[in-house]
Amino acid sequence: MLYDNESKITELWAAIDDIRNNPPLLDHRHNGFDASQVRYSDLAGKSTAGALGVITGSRDCSVASGAVNYAHGLSVTPTWVQLHASWGYTIGGSTFSPAYQSVGKFVTGVGQKCIYTGEQGGVGSHAIVHGAQAAAAVYIYDLYQGSGGIQSGVITVNSTNIVITWTKTGTSSVVADLLFDFGI
Questions:
Q1: I need a surface site. Which of 94, 122, 136, 144 has the fewest CB within 10 A?
Q2: How far apart are CA 89 and CA 99, in angstroms?
């Protein structure tokens, strides 16, 4: 029995020497890496090619509440998603260039939050508002001249899609452009 433990200790020392002589890739978040090159971990032998991704999408705020799938193409479930939304404002049926935004983040096992700017008020009392949402990754705030609405979105992920479950309050005609970046 003692001999068996000695061989395991010798094997561990050899593994430590191997790690010292062949250090791990340090810049994996920026340049990507092939996890099949990682030894002595739960990633050993698994490929994570394309472990980071960026996609775009949109949200028409006149659409009712519901879940929308945004295909990410990773073939694995992302552990984090950062979402940036931008939209213009509407006055008298005319939509002006993007002026407002929401920036949020979803992290598996941690939750999601966002910050936002938007508009509120009306002619002569127009105001820009800002805030934070503790339970949504995106918050599209468009309340002008007593009308308009809010669309808040909660993210879930799977191996194919980033899913946003949108909740609509009021009415709005803006279309928000969405930029997702994500990874494992």
A1: 94
A2: 7
- How many whole angstroms separate alpha carbon 43 and alpha carbon 48? 9
Q: How many CB atoms lie within 10 A of CB 59?
A: 21
pLDDT tens for residues 149-180? 899 999 999 999 999 999 999 888 788 999 99
Instruction: State CA 151 to chain mean position distance.
Output: 17
**For the chain, percent helix, then strand, then coil, each to nearest 5?**
15, 50, 35
Per-residue CA distances from 83 to 36, 55, 170, 184 (Å):
29, 10, 23, 15
Domain spans in the chain, listed from the N-terminal domain onward: 2-37, 52-183
Residue of 167, 177, 184 whose CA lies nearest to 56: 177
Q: What digits encode the pLDDT tens for the residues 72-100?
A: 988 899 999 999 999 886 666 666 666 78
